[in-house]
Amino acid sequence: MVERCVCHDVSFSRVAELARSGQTLEQISEQTGCCTGCGTCEPYVRVVIATGRTRLPVMTERQAAEVVAQAEAWKRSGGDRDKSAQ
Ligand code: FES
How many CB atoms lie within 10 A of CB 62? Predict the structure, then answer.
């Protein structure tokens, strides 16, 4: 499982916390340093921001982009509103 930016020792739990507070990828990256080293974590960080998940399987960049696209489509369809109404 992938759970952190190794270069800057930033947990994806911290990334998710910042995303929940409304910060963008750029703001999170600036604040924590994640995605500014080798860049390997960037596709994963995008998934964390889109889904809130903090323990991710090893994925290709393309697979991560597909997960982000699915999560964003789900949000656009009102999926997150349905969940909060339960
Ligand atoms: S693992 Fe995050 S920048 Fe290298």
Answer: 9
First to last CA, the chain: 30
Q: Tell me the domain boundaries of the chain.
A: 4-79
CA of residue 27 to ligand 1 center, whole Å: 16
Cα 45 to middle of ligand 1, angstroms = 10
**Statement: the pTM of the whole predicted model exceeds 0.85:** yes
| Closest approach atom of ligand 1 to CA 33 | 3
Instruction: Measure Cα distances from 14 to 32, 34, 49, 62 in Å.
Output: 9, 11, 11, 24
Per-run averaged pLDDT (10 residues), the chain, 86 residues: 97 98 97 97 97 97 96 88 56
Could you give the angle at the alpha carbon of 27 between the alpha carbons of 59 and 57, nearest 5°? 15
For the chain, percent helix, then strand, then coil, each to nearest 5?
Answer: 55, 5, 35
